[in-house]
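This section describes the prediction task in plain terms. A model, or a person checking by hand, is given the sequence of a single protein chain and must write out its three-dimensional structure as a string of tokens. No templates, partner chains or ligands are provided. The sample shown here is typical of the held-out split.
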Amino acid sequence: MTEYHCHILPNIDDGSRSVEMSLEMIKAMRAQGVSRIVATPHFYAHREKSVAAFLKKRRAALEKLVKADPSCSDILTGAEVSVEQGLSSLADVEKLRIANTDYILLELPYAPFSNRFLEEINEIACGFGLKPVLAHIHRYLSFYSRSEMEEVLRTDAVLQFNNEAFGSFREKRFVKSLIKEGYPYVFGSDAHNLTDRRPNWDLLCKKAKQEVIDGAEDILGQDK
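The expected answer:
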């Protein structure tokens, strides 16, 4: 299994607060069957000086992990990029993509639906040749109407499901309907810590059928 969404890098966002916590989170993921990890710290354009400054912080955080445990050198990097007005015109935004792929993990605002956010996604996709991955799409059921959700799903994106969705009847039903309809998808724990937002691949393995887990896209490729 591949972890496509987590906040394990120490002291870079609201995720892990120390190298020790990061290593414990990684240990838990691996014990639960995760073979590849993509670290995706939050990126908010309005908070960062620049993409370059963010990448420098991300690199430094990963280097701390590798220094503490050389096995962490196989951790891949990306970012959970908040969709904001003007994001598509930000210099170097394409450098926030997942590892060596053309995919970029995008997080929609927790706010009522707005076409301008979809316009930003389309501009990023068309302008930079990137393929959007929409983070935890099931979390927006309370924000979007059915027709608005259908508009979001027409962005031709890969859908990222948090494992937690399989612990909720409503979200699980929604996720299963999207899988049945043939939307491409990947999983992630969205882990931030070791308590209330811990690595939870054990939940996915317990609640989801094996064919559902196996059906996740391999957007990294087997050789990565």
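For orientation: The chain has one domain: 2-214.
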